[in-house]
Design goal:
By secondary structure, the protein is an alpha+beta fold. Helix content is 49%, strand content 22%. It folds into 2 domains: 4-91, no CATH class; 104-169. It is built from 4 helices and 6 strands; from the N terminus they run βαβββαββαα. Strand 2 and strand 3 form a beta hairpin.
């Protein structure tokens, strides 16, 4: 039985490239991603060190069967999924592409899907705050704090993802 190793690593939606690099470094040390969760706990399986590419994509309602088959045909393995994010991996080989998207517009579309979800979450939280009256000062303060925190992080994420889209398009 192989030994499992758990590591805590926080990453944000605009840090997918850095996170992919970290997973590649873990594989080079013989730690191969098995799963991750919303609490940023990554479970790795110990094995032989390998040069492996990891890539994240966003499909909030799960990757369709045709989509998964397209990736498998290109040599990618679906490792894990969490909160709409899906992690793919494949061994890196000289001369072969280690990207899941062959066109810049597909990569930009990934960031656009995240931007749309963030905008929806911030809007839904604002609407909930205004529609659900707080009965106590503590509850009202907590609601305000959550709304402001989500809005600030959401707006920062929108700015970072918008910059990523510009970078992808080469603008």
């Amino acid at each position: 039985m192989s030994k499992l190793v758990r590591k805590f690593k926080v990453w944000h939606v605009w840090q997918d490239e850095e996170h992919q690099q970290w997973l590649q470094e873990m594989a080079a040390q013989g730690l191969h991603l098995r799963s991750t969760n919303v609490f940023c706990i990554h479970t790795f399986e110990r094995g032989a060190p390998a040069d492996v590419a990891y890539r994240w994509d966003v499909r909030y309602f799960g990757p369709a069967a045709e989509y998964q088959q397209l990736f498998r045909d290109a040599g990618w393995e679906l490792v894990t999924s969490t909160v709409g994010w899906h992690c793919w991996r494949k061994p890196r080989t000289a001369g072969a592409s280690a990207e899941i998207f062959t066109q810049r517009s597909d990569n930009a579309a990934k960031y656009l899907r995240v931007i749309r979800l963030l905008a929806l979450v911030v809007s839904a939280e604002a609407l909930a705050y205004w529609l659900i009256p707080a009965k106590h000062a503590y509850a009202e303060g907590l609601a305000w704090g959550m709304f402001i925190g989500t809005a600030v992080v959401g707006l920062y994420a929108l700015a970072k993802l918008s910059q990523r889209m510009k970078d992808v398009h080469g603008a």
